[in-house]
Design a protein that fits this description.
This protein is an alpha/beta fold. It has one domain: Aldolase class I (TIM Barrel), CATH 3.20.20.70. It has twelve helices and ten strands.
């Protein structure tokens, strides 16, 4: 549990409204491919762009579709602590395995304020609480010293999306608790992250190409490091192709190319234009992944 390849599942919509059938389609696709878990309503799931009601329904659909076969972690981060607590309690009530949260965002908060936020989450639920470090999105970063304090307060683990392997190493060396769970928050750093002590990877790319990310994880697990290095480079090349257009929109388009009906991202996130679709398809075919 809380290891392997965990997918920050996208949230399909139609006409700006949650497309439940599309969400079930992508969840089933990923379960069939063998992913180990789901990170719900995070960055790829556009959770912060949704209302509390929408986020609750997305969590309900994923947890229902998974039916206990995969780990489910619900992202409850919000600038409003009352909303985060409401989402946390709801996640526990519907049977999610854990919750995760970024620090409160938009405003700049000091470490005492961030610590207070996580203490409130910890006291609101009995399921594990994961910290989620994503400074590019929140404007508030977790320091290694603060993470150790959070661990001592009872936070179960960390999803690190700093995209900074040195920062990840600092986190690992700072936390005193031996049972603390580290998860690297990008497939771009899966190899060094797991070698350093991460139990798994939360991979946005795995929405579209779960097989490739799973292959990388298995190669690392089997200590076939030379092959894993080559697979890691392949993943980097795929990421480069996808990042030539809006990334989340690209994930939707690739799933459509693969025959999965997933609707569209929630506005104001846009779908790709036709020339972008053609360029993306050409790039991925050149990489032999389509």
């Amino acid at each position: 549990m809380y290891g392997g390849v965990i997918v920050p599942v996208i949230t399909p919509t139609r006409n700006g409204v949650l497309y439940e059938e599309g969400l079930r389609n992508v969840v089933n696709f990923l379960v069939e491919k063998g992913v180990h878990g789901f990170f719900i309503a995070g960055t790829y799931g556009l959770g912060p762009a949704m209302s509390v009601g929408e986020r609750k329904r997305v969590a309900e659909v994923v947890v229902d579709e998974v039916r206990g076969s995969n780990t489910t972690i619900v992202m409850v981060g919000s600038p409003n602590i009352e909303d985060s607590i409401e989402l946390a309690k709801h996640a526990q009530d519907i049977g999610a395995d854990a919750i995760s949260s970024v620090p409160p965002f938009y405003y700049a908060y000091d470490e005492k304020s961030i610590l207070s936020f996580f203490k409130a989450l910890l006291s609101s639920v009995s399921i594990p609480v994961f910290a989620y470090n994503n400074p590019a999105r929140t404007g508030n970063t977790l320091s290694a010293k603060l993470l150790n304090k959070l661990a001592n307060e009872g936070v179960a683990g960390l999803k690190d999306s700093s995209f900074d392997i040195i920062k990840f190493y600092e986190f690992i060396t700072a936390v005193e608790r031996k049972d603390f769970i580290f998860i690297i928050g990008t497939e771009a750093l899966m190899l060094p992250g797991i070698l350093a002590g991460a139990r798994g990877c939360i991979s946005g790319l795995a929405n579209a190409f779960p097989e490739i990310v799973l292959e990388e994880y298995e190669l690392i697990r089997q200590k076939r490091y030379e092959e894993a290095s080559l697979k890691q480079l392949q993943i980097i090349r795929i990421r480069e192709a996808i990042h030539n257009v809006p990334t989340i929109s690209a994930i939707f388009q690739i799933l459509k190319m693969r025959g999965i009906d997933v609707g569209n991202p929630k506005p104001p996130y846009r779908s790709l234009e036709e020339h972008e679709v053609r360029a993306l398809e050409k790039s991925l075919k050149a990489l032999n992944v389509l």
